Amino acid sequence: MTRAGLPLPWYSYPAIAFLSDRLPPGARVFEYGAGNSSLWYASRCREVTSVESDENWYQEIARRLPVNAHCVFRPDRDSYAAEITNHVGPFDVIVIDGQWRAACARQALHCLAPGGVVIWDNSDMPEFEFDAAFEDVFVPAGFRELELRGLGPVNAFVWSTSILYRPGNLLSI
Question: Is this prediction's pTM over 0.85?
């Protein structure tokens, strides 16, 4: 939360600053993993759709969402990763910050707008399988990575939030 009590996504501070200055208000966002980021995007973008795998966290977040955001609970890997295909796309921003990230990456690529970007939090942590997914899914599709390392709102250590983009993207990278 900010000093004013507004939500912040649990990304690295450099990523939050970068996105704050560049997100277009008309963007449609899909998130794998709901939370403060859902509230943050909802205050900046036209529409936010999230999928969550933890039922208690889902109930906590779903009751706090504004009218331009909604969250779906999907507890198993296949329905969680495929949830993005249940919504009319394409999406301008797809966030991969929840469970089963490699499976989500394969689904996300097909639902991303031509100028869209993918935000992958904790991209430096091996347990989240970023390196393999980036090489297998995103590099062949022409994506590049902007890695934004630093402290963030919830951890006392440095980590990376990566933005995956192609030329002509909505963030003008």
Answer: yes
